[in-house]
Every structure is written in structure tokens, then in C-alpha cells.
């Protein structure tokens, strides 16, 4: 499995970065330095390793399971599926950690800039990913038990507080 990984970060959550680097190793961090959440997401997705089969973005409020890389290696088997490593319920495609086959990323980025009307509909980027997958008949799959959980902190996007994985492997 070849998977590039990065962290999507907001400066208000800098206290969580040491934990993530401890759990994940030395990986790229994309910090919102004023470009805004949406543009930071685009930069992070566009950073994928062109030689990798997968690209995973983990948000800075994630809790990471024990033995993360071995668990990730067990699930990344089908290069046609977008894997969501956080499962809350069937109605929410939460973006705490989403892993996309790299063959889909350029199309996703094009859709985010040209096909997705952000002026009419505002969604977090994870909802854009879900919509792109639906429009292009790309299968998505939740990983249960989840490999990540959502840290119980205030949302920067005004989402509900208290998002929690239904089943989490644990730290």
C-alpha cells in the first residue's frame, strides 16, 4: 500500500499537532493561514503523492487508533473505493479522515473549482467529496470500527458539538 498522508490544520488547534505527529510520524501539515477552510482543503488534496495509490487527509481534531498504519493497511484493498475512516452514522459523511484513490483526486479538484457551486450551496469539503462520488458513481465505504474518532472540541465550521464515532478501535 502506498498512501500519502497529511493533516488539515487550523491555527486555533495548534495544541493537537504534537499528538498527531507522535501518532502519525513526520507528515505534511496544511495550515489555514488566512486562505480559508475550503482553499486549505484544496491545497491539501492537491498535495497527493503522484506515485501513491491513495491520499489520506486527517483533520486536526482527530484521535488516532492504536497501530494506525497496520490497521490502515488492512482496509485499503479496493482502489475504486473512497474510504471514510470515521463512522458516526449512515447520514453523515464526516471528514475527520478520508482516504481517496489518487486516480480520482484531479477530477475532485476540478469539480471543486468548476462543477460545484459554492455560492449557492455551502457545504464542508467532506460533503463535496460525497457529492462528487455520487455524481461519478464512485463507491464510498465507512470503516467500522473507525480508525479515528472526533476530539470533543468546538467546531470551527459551526457543526454540532459531540460528533463521536459509533465504534472506535481506541488509542
Q: Which percent range fits the helix content?
A: 25-40%
The CATH class: Alpha Beta
**Largest sheet, spatial ordering of strands:** 2-1-3-6-5-7
The proportion of strand residues reads 15-25%
Explain how this protein is built:
With 171 residues, the chain is an alpha/beta fold. It contains five helices and eight strands. It has helices at residues 17-24, 37-46, 68-75, 105-115, 125-135, and strands spanning 3-9, 28-31, 54-59, 62-64, 81-84, 97-101, 139-142, 148-150. α1 (17-24) links the parallel β1 and β2 (28-31). The longest helix is centred in the middle third of the chain and has 11 residues, at 105-115.
Write the layout of secondary structure elements.
Elements: E1 3-9, H1 17-24, E2 28-31, H2 37-46, E3 54-59, E4 62-64, H3 68-75, E5 81-84, E6 97-101, H4 105-115, H5 125-135, E7 139-142, E8 148-150
Parallel strand pairs: 1-2, 1-3, 5-7
Antiparallel strand pairs: 3-6, 4-8, 5-6
Which key features would you list for this structure?
single chain, 171 residues, alpha/beta, Spore Coat Polysaccharide Biosynthesis Protein SpsA, Chain A, six-stranded mixed β-sheet, two-stranded antiparallel ribbon, 28% helix
Amino acid at each position: 500500500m502506498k498512501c500519502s498522508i497529511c493533516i488539515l490544520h487550523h491555527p486555533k488547534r495548534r495544541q493537537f499537532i504534537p499528538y498527531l505527529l507522535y501518532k502519525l510520524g513526520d507528515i505534511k501539515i496544511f495550515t489555514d493561514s488566512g486562505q480559508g477552510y475550503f482553499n486549505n482543503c484544496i491545497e491539501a488534496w492537491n498535495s497527493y503523492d503522484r506515485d501513491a495509490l491513495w491520499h489520506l487527509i486527517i483533520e486536526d481534531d482527530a484521535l488516532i487508533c492504536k497501530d494506525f498504519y497496520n490497521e490502515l493497511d488492512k482496509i485499503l484493498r479496493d482502489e475504486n473505493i473512497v474510504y471514510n475512516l470515521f463512522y458516526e452514522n449512515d447520514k453523515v459523511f464526516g471528514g475527520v479522515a478520508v482516504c481517496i484513490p489518487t486516480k480520482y483526486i484531479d477530477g475532485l479538484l476540478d469539480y471543486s473549482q468548476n462543477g460545484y457551486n459554492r455560492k449557492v450551496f455551502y457545504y464542508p469539503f467532506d460533503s463535496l467529496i460525497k457529492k462528487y462520488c455520487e455524481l461519478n458513481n464512485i463507491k464510498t465505504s465507512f470503516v467500522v470500527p473507525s480508525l479515528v474518532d472526533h476530539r470533543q472540541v468546538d467546531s470551527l465550521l459551526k457543526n454540532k458539538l459531540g460528533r463521536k464515532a459509533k465504534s472506535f478501535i481506541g488509542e
